[in-house]
Amino acid sequence: MDELLYTFRLKSVRLIVLIAYFIYKMRFRFV
């Protein structure tokens, strides 16, 4: 159970970082 929660948290953090990086690239490109 803890392992599942850990993997889910890891995936969510990874997704947030990916989205933040994408937004940063788009902002840098247009500005």
Describe the fold and architecture.
The protein has one helix spanning 2-30. The chain is rod-shaped. The protein has 31 residues and is mainly alpha-helical. Helix content is 94%, strand content 0%.
Q: What does the secondary structure layout of this molecule look like, with pairings?
A:
Layout: H1 2-30
User: What would the principal axes of the Cα set say about the shape?
Assistant: rod-shaped
Radius of gyration: 14 Å
- CA-CA gap between termini: 45 Å
Query: Helix amount, in percent?
Result: over 70%
Strand count, sense and barrel status of the largest sheet are:
none
State which percent range the strand residues make up: under 5%
Mean pLDDT: 90
Give the structural class. Answer: mainly alpha
Q: Tally the beta strands.
A: 0
| Contiguous uncertain segments of 5+ residues | none
Number of helices: 1
Helix and strand sequence: H
Transmembrane segments: 6-24
Keywords: Membrane, Transmembrane, Transmembrane helix
Short description, anyone?
With 31 residues, the protein is an all-alpha fold. The protein has 1 helix and no strands.
Kindly list the characteristics that best describe this protein.
single chain; 31 residues; mainly alpha; 94% helix; rod-shaped; transmembrane; transmembrane helix; membrane
